[in-house]
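Memo to structure team: turn this sequence into structure tokens by end of day. - J.P.
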Amino acid sequence: MTQIRRPQEAIRTSPVLVDPEGLHDPIPFGYSHTVIIPAETELVLVSGQYGSGPDGAVVSADFTEQVQRAFHNIGVALAAHGLDLGHVVQLRTYVVNHDVSKLGPIAAAVRAGWGAKPPTQTLVGVASLAAPDVLFEVEALAARP
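Reply from structure team:
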């Protein structure tokens, strides 16, 4: 995916990340400000994934391990459609009892998956998720040019 500062520079044949001038640099925080998706692009939406194994059980009580496994599961879901993390244009993350100490593991997982070109992302702090032992969940929107 291409990353630019001015949307008018975009060649609209594949998704383009745009971090507009006048806004802070979001890359160190693990996201991009905007993305342009061409009209003819096929979208794949991945439901919220949590730190579970193939049996659905949470793999660990550790927040960092749940984050890593949830992103792994996003990759597994995308692979079923012939896609990978590089096709993701938006993430929505949910964090139980969010505080700033949880930003590090999330940012590390995003850097591991996307390097210097992370997708757009919204983080939502929540009181709880689907089960009491689930501490983190992430959903994704991927685009196939």
